[in-house]
């Protein structure tokens, strides 16, 4: 199956070849995780300017932060899919691939001649994954979909705010990333089934479906009570105390999901009497009397600093944390000790810092990442190694705008 270019990737998916037509975020995140797990990923990009995210500021040299964040350890081939020859090259690569990944609107890949039915005819083992905004058969299918659109339609924006404030999007692009993450579940399950049957299949994931699936207990609150969950900010809709609590110089997070932790918290505050108080003794009583309890908790915690409370909460074994900025998060000892940030050398832009994948096998994380490729950096390697094109044939394709190689 994999008579292509030599891959130096290692991991559980070593030997799996992925042909990635996806761009921007939903899709590229999934293919990056596949690369982290050892797969060889060939990213197909438009010959003109490549993946749109190559042009999103800010930049390190000429490299977009956005492209760097989502495209490590992939090979780039710049291919004109508006030409018959470009489409044929894509078909030839798909014939050798285990996985094809795309995130165009429904029908686009079919019109290009690169849909599942067309590619599966020549490769019955092919697993083809489509990530869309709303799905192939949704009444919203033709609507352009971006992360914030999926967030708005999923209901998550309505609860992602303090009570009385305007709806707000999640700080991370979970609509895009949710689609990618669920596509990975589907792809790995399809690979497992192919091991038994020898046949691939079409995996489909919609961003909106993924966010609705991630509602978790919020959807069940609606089904059980008939009432739609309301925004509670950092608090929990049914667990009290839980959330952000003010100190004399900031805030700390406290999360008392069990009665033991609530008892520990009350003792930590020096208010052990609250444990037996009939207003606060049980979950439902604390929920009904949330405001009264918060008045007591806030009044006490505002008397001392964040540092004081973090140490005391830890001493009393209360789940708690400071609220870190992104920069503080990346510099904290946990990240350093877990080696979650790595530095790789880019051929034109020098040292790049990147966040590593989080999955470990037998204690080891992903193999060292490769820097994100320049546009068309691997065009010659892929065409020559995988498809057997001669150098003069590649030069002719470059001259006619069918493919592009890096400058």
From TrEMBL:
Please tell me whether the keyword Transferase is annotated for this protein. yes
Q: Which GO terms describe its molecular function?
A: succinyl-CoA:(R)-benzylsuccinate CoA-transferase activity
Q: What is its EC number?
A: 2.8.3.15
UniProtKB keywords: Transferase
Top-level EC class as recorded in UniProt: transferase
Q: Which SUPFAM superfamilies match?
A: CoA-transferase family III (CaiB/BaiF)
Asked if the record carries the keyword Transferase, the reply is: yes
What is this protein identified as?
Succinyl-CoA:(R)-benzylsuccinate CoA-transferase subunit BbsF
What organism is recorded for this protein? Answer: Actibacterium lipolyticum
